[in-house]
Amino acid sequence: MGIYKIGKDGITAIRNKFIRSQAIVFFILVLMFGYFYLYDDRFKDAYSLYVFPVILLLYFAWSSYRRIKVAVDIYNSLEIEVNDLHIIRRQKGSPDLTLSVFEISRMSRVRNGIIIRGESAGAIMQIPSALDNYDELEEQLEKIRPFDESDIKAFHEKFWYVGLLLMLGGFFGLNTSTNPFVLILSGIALLLFLHVFVKAVYRNRIFSDARRVTANWILYVISLVLIALVVLKVIGYI
Known about the structure:
Elements: E1 2-4, H1 8-39, H2 51-77, E2 79-82, E3 86-90, E4 97-100, E5 104-110, E6 113-118, E7 124-128, H3 134-144, H4 155-158, H5 160-176, H6 180-201, H7 209-234
């Protein structure tokens, strides 16, 4: 068996992929702010209001740089170990994720590598195709268990676009409408996004128990603030 890591060329490709994705989001934000601040009469000649988008774009640029740096550090530290009894994923900032070969319920080739699912909902291991000697790793895994023809995704993975629509629709309705019915629906949409899609991500065993507890508390606090905001907008207080 053996231990597999990502080489220099793989790290460069991953860094470029993250840069492209962040650049696309940044471009979309610039277009959105450009539309509102150049074509909306409420913002014409209100130069003091330009401070907010400038600060937001600068923050996004800084946070994108940090995210890319953290992601590259994680992939630099990534190791996949395969032996007769276990498949182990190690990476910086996370506990080791160990799947017993007897625990594997499904193993499939996906677009960017391999996904291995255990019997529990949080037992999910993703193996990137950027690993050196990836073909050899595939052969080792196939000796443990034949690959399935397709992957069976969880609800939040399969219908990720529903979560995106809930988030965008909820934010749009909450910020543009004064209709109580629309405000309540927008609040419900955002709560569903938080507790169906966001919360599901932290069930993965790659996150430590302490991190999952912290994430749950943050979600509850955000939910309470969101509910309070909806109530205040419905009664016309804000």
